[in-house]
Amino acid sequence: MTTTHAWPHLFHEGAADTPVLLLLHGTGGTEHDLLPLAERLAPGAGYLAPRGPVREHGMNRWFRRFGEGVFDIDDVVLRAGELAAFISWAREHYALGDRRLIAVGFSNGANIALATALLHPGMVADAVAFSGMYPLEGRSIDTDLSGSSIALFNGSADAMAPLDSAVRVGSILESRGAEVRRNVREGGHGIHPTEVDGAAAWITSLTRKVTHD
């Protein structure tokens, strides 16, 4: 289990009137991987970028798996809880107050973002998931997600995150009350420049909505 205060991570405060992006890298990545995305997604925003706590053949991951696309669901649940605890610690440690936190994950990072959004909406209510899939197969979800907003970006020919699984997670999120934006492009696993533009526009609309409300 990862101790929250000792969790390797990067933090940048950003402007006080901006959201904080929770940057969650993919398998084999580090806390530095998604930093170039931050300024493109939300100029001037803060970011919180932790490192995946699980090691698989020397690669950082967010939870264990039994094989490609076959997740250790018990570990997914455990690690989502640990990430939620880390976010709670970071909010207090960095005096984030009521600043909006938006998870931004790629691949394995998208999956832990979705798992945490599904299980701990009080910690992750808003998320951008690039090349993610449903991470809690076989588990019933009974959380109220009526305050959550999730943007899914997937490739139609993604062998690592099959589209039917992405459709499934979107449907489950919606069934629990979340607002879901689905975006499907041609191609496979990865983050396409058009998806970055789409995610940036979505984040802008999300923050403006709060301002106008």
UniProtKB/TrEMBL annotation:
Residues forming the Phospholipase/carboxylesterase/thioesterase domain are 16-203
Keyword Transmembrane included in the entry's annotation: no
Any Pfam family hit: Abhydrolase_2
Keyword tags: Hydrolase
InterPro entries xrefs:
AB_hydrolase_fold, LYPA1-2/EST-like, PLipase/COase/thioEstase
Originating organism? Arthrobacter bussei
Family classification: Belongs to the AB hydrolase superfamily. AB hydrolase 2 family.
Its recorded name reads: Alpha/beta hydrolase
Query: MF terms per GO, please?
Result: hydrolase activity
Q: Which SUPFAM superfamilies match?
A: alpha/beta-Hydrolases (SSF53474)
Gene3D superfamilies named among the record's database cross-references: alpha/beta hydrolase (3.40.50.1820)
